[in-house]
Amino acid sequence: MDMGHTHLVAAYAVTIGIHVVYFAYVAVKYRAAKK
Amino acid sequence: MKALRAVWLLATLAVLAEGFRVALFVVPPDAQQGDVFRIFFYHFPSWIGMGLFFAINLACSLIYLAVRNKNQGLALKSDALAVASAEIGVVYCLIGLVTGSLWGRAVWGIWWTWDARLTSTLVLWLIYVAYLLLRRFAAGPQMRTLAAVMAIFGYLDVPLVYMSTRWWRTQHPAPVFGGGQGSGVAHVMMPAVWWNLAGWVMWGIFVASLRYVSEYRAQKAEQDEALRMLDVQQQELSGARG
Q1: Does A5 touch chain B (CB under 8 A)?
Q2: Residue A24 C-alpha, separation from nearest chain B C-alpha, in angstroms
Q3: CA B112 to CA B118: how far, in whole Å?
Q4: Higher local confidence (pLDDT), A8 or B172
Q5: Which of B86, B82, B100, B98 lies closest to B50, judged by CA?
């Protein structure tokens, strides 16, 4: 895997990862507010 | 509302999956950059998402300032939406910075450079992080007014970020869209741009709507508690007088 591919995979993984982490935070807040 | 949210989520995930497939497996590699250009298909929607949600934050902040003394219900709703849109805007801005840095390392050979576009974007991110920290660590109606004013001044950096590659000579590439003659991506790449743009904006709307609900409920509960305490104090005072 050359440098370009490594960076491409990293960029997609970071994008999805940050969204998943933020979504988890939002879901926790949402559940807490429902109680 | 729950059913609408579930349908919206399913549609969003389907669009995102298609965007992922088209971006990685359908459109051809760029003639000059090769496969690393595919970062653009996630990088570009992040900036559009950021611009959209910071604009919503600005509109909500203006509404809050205009109605805070006249219409408490609307003020509370607009303030809750301002928080939700600022948070998702910060998320998109962070992703734009990180994906841009990864692309820069592969194409320029450097992770970062202090040119006008990158620096103004980093400043923008820091302004909205400061906005969220203010909201997190201060309390009361003054905090909301202060945050709304800060949001208005913070948004002034958005047009600066947008125009930076037009006004100054930057390391960052010239505008891909709306950059005049010779700008734009190849026609064959456009499906990857549209699918991912639609998918990530839909995702942002979904997450922001959930965050809005939780923020509104929390603020409403806080307000109700404050009113209840005020009522108790008034009863105690009138009891003491009687």
Answers
A1: yes
A2: 10
A3: 8
A4: A8
A5: B86
Distance from CA of A5 to the nearest CA of B (A): 6
CB B51 within 8 A of CB B125: no
Average pLDDT, chain B: 91
Residues of chain A contacting B87 with CB distance shorter than 8 Å:
22
Non-local (6+) Cβ contacts of B212 within 8 A are B80, B81, B83, B84
Helix (H, G, I), strand (E, B) or coil at B34: strand
Task: Give the position of tokens 């100054």.
Answer: B168
How many other CB atoms sit within 10 Å of the CB of residue B69?
9
Confidence at residue B165, expressed as pLDDT on a 0 to 100 scale: 82
Supply the pTM of this predicted model. 0.90
Chain A residues touching residue B214 (CB < 8 angstroms): 26, 29-30, 32-33
